[in-house]
């Protein structure tokens, strides 16, 4: 029998995911147990993506906006989960929402406490049952744009498991639990505090109906648990926390209150938006001369491959409009191999002596890095992966999906699939990361990818960016100014960026539908991802 206070709430059901414009998805750490084990926080801690996360940083690379945090508290069976669902549904196409449940943060128990819990003799409704400092720490990281790894709690075992769940990238965080407003440290992190108020008789009636129908419990057992634990906790801790709420929402017929909450959240997100891709694409038109690095390779501090005749020949084929797709793929793989080999010189090495087959000592070097991985910026970064893997054998490779907004052209972060070593702060701080993208034109995708790594704790001087082409007059000058310690290894440097329109899209300043604004590198190599994959 489960006696967790949060277990009494309805779980997030599948129809919640279908409300996000048909594009929502649940992201979970690969080390989690399968979701068909309904006793382990089923669908409680969820990432919902419907629109993509816009830039949360400024031109100098610093974070300028926190996630918006909404707390939803109230008595057991008051309708907290329903209110959280309705908020998500009503918000519609918002960037990224994380639903964070109080369930995850039950404290570890001794074997004796676990035995009592199975006998229904442990009070899970008391504040001492929750690890409030850990709850506040994880929420603070998420609010500040950092990754966190929250605990996983098994209701069947009445114990916190050793595994954790990785969460990152929220624009809106909804925390839900009966004690969400009880702890002062948690309250300081909330931007909006909601208390769901419901009649005690109605809450008890809901509990009896739900637990008898869905969980096979007896009425006597439900009443015993309610009188022993639930009612005292509500009177002593839950109901008094309503005084800290910004909004009191009724437990039923609450559509007006939810509309007001969603209107406030949308307004706050609009105020925190930041757009500057056009400034990166043509920085000399927007920034003062003193803020823009002169457009030459030396001042941009780029690491350019030696311009051998072989390299010139490869670029001639890759740039040619008449090159076949087969030739393009072959020589792109060759170029990415050369780039990766050259980029390896940026990793630290230490002396090593080995004994040869002729019994003679040979003095050489070996890699002096605890953890090395690669991350592709999709989709053009994927064109570099085959050559990268040829050189860096058996190292983990993750990906970031960054796409341009159809209306504004700003980068949007849709998916983060990072290697496990980057998801943990203590290993990310020691990691060396190769970022892969085919070219740096406006630099918007590169900017976002570097910011993601910094959010995870990767050191700036441990990031090596591998790319085929860099536009000298594009966003690379802004990128270098924001992240001077990042090393950029490229094949060639092109001179110009040209403004153009992507055909078939009507936008502001383009009412005839000639397309949305894009910035094209010249001479360039075209859309590298399309040429490689299509």
Automatic annotation (TrEMBL):
Catalytic activity, as annotated: uridine + ATP = UMP + ADP + H(+); cytidine + ATP = CMP + ADP + H(+)
Keywords: ATP-binding, Kinase, Nucleotide-binding, Transferase
Positions of the Phosphoribosyltransferase domain: 306-499
Cross-referenced InterPro entries: P-loop_NTPase, PRK/URK, PRTase-like, PRTase_dom, Uridine_kinase-like
EC number(s) stated in the UniProt entry for this protein: 2.7.1.48
Residue numbers spanned by region Disordered: 19-39
Domain named Phosphoribulokinase/uridine kinase: residues: 69-251
A Pfam family recorded for this sequence: PRK
Annotated signal sequence range: none
Pathway(s) it belongs to: Pyrimidine metabolism; CTP biosynthesis via salvage pathway; CTP from cytidine: step 1/3; Pyrimidine metabolism; UMP biosynthesis via salvage pathway; UMP from uridine: step 1/1
Sequence similarity: Belongs to the uridine kinase family.
Protein name according to UniProt: Uridine kinase
Species the sequence originates in: Hohenbuehelia grisea
């Amino acid at each position: 029998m489960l006696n967790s206070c949060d277990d009494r709430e309805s779980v997030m059901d599948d129809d919640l995911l279908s409300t996000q414009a048909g594009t929502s998805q649940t992201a979970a750490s690969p080390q989690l147990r399968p979701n068909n084990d309904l006793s382990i926080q089923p669908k409680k801690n969820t990432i919902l993506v419907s629109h993509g996360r816009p830039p949360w940083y400024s031109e100098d690379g610093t974070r300028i906006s926190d996630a918006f945090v909404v707390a939803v508290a109230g008595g057991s069976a008051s309708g907290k989960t329903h209110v959280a669902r309705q908020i998500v549904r009503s918000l519609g196409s918002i960037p990224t929402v994380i639903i964070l449940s109080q369930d995850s943060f039950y404290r570890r128990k001794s074997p004796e406490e676990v035995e009592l819990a199975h006998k229904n003799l442990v009070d899970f409704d008391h504040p001492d049952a929750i690890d409030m400092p850990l709850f506040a720490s994880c929420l603070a990281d998420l609010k500040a744009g950092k990754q966190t790894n929250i605990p996983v709690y098994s209701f069947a075992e009445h114990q916190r498991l050793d595994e954790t769940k990785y969460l990152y990238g929220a624009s809106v965080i909804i925390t839900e639990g009966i004690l969400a407003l009880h702890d002062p440290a948690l309250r300081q992190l909330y931007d909006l505090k909601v208390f769901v108020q419901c009649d005690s008789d109605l809450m008890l009636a809901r509990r009896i109906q739900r637990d008898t129908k869905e969980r096979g419990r007896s009425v006597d057992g439900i009443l015993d648990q309610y009188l022993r634990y639930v009612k005292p906790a509500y009177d002593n801790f839950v109901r008094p926390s309503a005084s800290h709420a910004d909004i009191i929402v009724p437990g039923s017929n609450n559509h007006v209150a939810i509309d007001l909450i969603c209107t406030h959240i949308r307004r706050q997100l609009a105020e925190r938006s930041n757009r500057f891709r056009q400034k990166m694409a043509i920085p000399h038109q927007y920034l003062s001369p003193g803020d823009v690095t002169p457009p030459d390779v030396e001042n941009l501090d780029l690491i350019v491959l030696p311009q051998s005749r072989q390299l010139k020949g490869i670029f001639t084929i890759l740039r040619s409009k008449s090159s076949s797709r087969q030739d393009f793929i072959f020589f792109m793989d060759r170029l990415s191999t050369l780039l990766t080999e050259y980029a390896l010189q940026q990793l630290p090495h230490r002396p090593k002596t080995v004994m040869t087959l002729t019994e003679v000592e040979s003095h050489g070097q070996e890699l002096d890095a605890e953890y090395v991985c690669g991350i592709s910026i999709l989709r053009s970064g994927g064109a570099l992966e085959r050559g990268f893997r040829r050189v860096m054998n058996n190292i983990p490779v993750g990906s970031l999906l960054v796409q341009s907004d159809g209306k504004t052209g700003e980068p949007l972060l849709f998916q983060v699939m990072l290697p496990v070593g980057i998801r943990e702060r203590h290993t990310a701080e020691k990691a060396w990361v190769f970022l892969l993208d085919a070219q740096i034109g406006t630099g918007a995708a590169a900017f976002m990818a570097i910011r993601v790594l910094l959010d995870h704790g990767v050191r700036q001087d441990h990031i090596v960016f591998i790319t085929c082409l860099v536009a000298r007059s594009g966003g690379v000058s802004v990128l270098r100014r924001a992240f001077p310690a990042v090393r950029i290894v490229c094949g060639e440097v092109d001179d110009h960026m040209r403004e153009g329109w992507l055909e078939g899209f009507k936008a502001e300043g383009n009412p005839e539908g000639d397309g949305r604004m894009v910035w094209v590198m010249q001479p360039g190599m075209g859309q590298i991802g399309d040429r490689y994959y299509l």
